[in-house]
Specification:
mainly alpha, about 65% helix, 2 helices, 2 domains
């Protein structure tokens, strides 16, 4: 009877480990997708900034009528920056940084309550983040 209990517990632990690995790999795929989206948005921002530079230079040379296009590019670039910030927030939520000791700045395991280096108490982690 004891052997069946041990086998059952082992199977349960393996199942939980597989779920953890599955979630972690899913998070890694999502992180890669978000980074790819950020890369595309950054390239679009580079193009906008280049176009803005050209339009400002044309205005400097005396050409008129570029104000609307400049305004459109400025607004578009601002919205791209906001999208990139949102994607970075999502990446941060998928891959939270480990805690650091406030006293000696040593990286701690995520479940640590005290620093194993200096013994300082660590601030409790916010589970909603």
């Amino acid at each position: 009877m004891e052997i069946f209990k041990k086998v059952s517990e082992s199977a349960k632990n393996i199942g939980e480990g597989a779920k953890t690995i599955g979630k972690r790999s899913s998070d890694m795929v999502e992180t890669a997708r978000l980074k790819f989206e950020i890369s595309k948005l950054e390239k679009e921002m580079e193009n906008n900034i280049s176009a803005l530079g050209n339009l400002v230079f044309l205005q400097h040379k005396g050409e008129q009528g570029h104000e609307e296009e400049i305004e459109r590019l400025l607004n578009n670039t601002k919205s791209l920056e906001e999208e990139i910030a949102e994607f970075n927030d999502l990446i941060q939520k998928l891959n939270p940084r480990p805690p650091f000791c406030p006293t000696c700045q040593v990286e701690m395991p995520s479940n640590a309550k005290f620093c194993y280096n200096c013994g300082s108490a660590l601030a409790p982690q916010d589970p909603t983040e």
